[in-house]
Amino acid sequence: MTSLDGLLPRPVRVRPATGTYRFTSDRVPSHVSTVVSIDPAIPREGYRVSITPDGVTTAAADPAGAFHAETTLRQLLGPDAYRAANIHDGPWELPCGEIEDHPRFRWRGCLLDVARHFMPKAGVFRFLDLMAAHRLNVLHLHLTDDQGWRIEVPEYPRLTEVGSWRHGSWVGRQPDGTTEHDGRPHGGYYTTDDLREIVAYAADRHVTVVPEVDVPGHSQAAIAAYPWLGVTGAALEVRTGWGVSDNLLSPTDETLDFYRRVLTHVASVFPSEVICVGGDEVPVTQWEASPVARDRAAELGLPSVTGLHGWFVGRLSAHLATLGRRTLAWDEVLDTGEVARDTIVGAWRGEDLGVRAATAGHDVLMCPEQEVYLDHRQSDHPDEPIPVGFHRTLSDVYAYDPAPPTVPVERVLGAQAQVWTEHLDSQRRVDYAAFPRLAAFAEVVWSPPAGRSFAEFERRLDRHHLPRLDALGVEYRPRSGPHPWQTRPGVPGRVR
To answer: What ranges does the record give for the region Disordered, renumbered to this chain (predicted)?
Structure first.
């Protein structure tokens, strides 16, 4: 052990940009090494930390690697190092030794849906802190949907004046015959400065924020703000229910120009190389009934209005290319007959779609709902709150491999866990759904499967990591089942 008592001031100095302990201060004795150097021989985002009785020396591939090294040192200090203020009693100590590590994938992401239930800015900052603590490096912000528009676009103020709030929300699980609404208005949006602040906060933690503006489906909030964007031109309200809406964007030049301008603004706020345009769940019922849509399909030489899906996404993808950006789209675009080769495909409907996209030459982001949708239920017991989707336990998530033998591994950028919030209406519910499964996912995308053991992960989780989450104030799902206040409303007892 090497003691840091006397090396760290009291109260412990915290680096504002990262929230991690820094090992330099005016009180560090001159004989103690606190060297951080860049070594290009270390793999991307990797690091090597040497801890001796004389101090700590770090070599890193790049600044991200140096940050991950700090994260490791913070872990070694114990749970007290994760509290917002110093309550540690006694000397700070680190075990002597050498640690060398680097990530398996370059994209280690998590989608946070702030469209269905808005998360205030402070909550996004907290979520970024939790991502950084787990060495996740991409926050995919789902910013627009039928139920809400969360991006200020100064040129189109009604997007937030009208589209950012709804009259109420479905409660319970649909579609199961439940039609109850809570009758409580819900809303919120991020100003341009808010979003720039989120981007900067994330960058300080070596997290890239990838924004999503979903088209041509999942667009009812935008149509509610500007009805001419829709196929029928009829006035709509921001949707209060979940599921897939039939209300699509109209395939006109005016609608495309509107979204080009929106994406130009988005690109001015988000420096990410990648911008997501959605492209998922596009029922063509309205297009089939629309003379405008049928005429546009005929004009373009398309065999049916179904082809408008790929055409619409393709036009916006081409616009993003003029802005120096790359498109991410959900795997339905593979069925459209028109998808640019450099489009990244998010394989959400199943791993086989990721294999198909990679085989066709696309870079792939693995995010299959059967494996990594963290809003899905963690137990089949009726106490589980809002038991939707596939049953995926902690061990299931840990066992997932984003690069199966059937996929061209060089095409797999990485993987992404998804936190959809139809049924997660508060920070407490997000905590419950995400953790500790997100901790398991973080290890899956950081470490290769060889040498990983769920039994060993469980031991570390119980002994070390859950106490860290406790110190961070994360209201995760206990291993034995939910606390009484975490159970399904109206259902007493616990998951057995």
So the answer is: 477-496
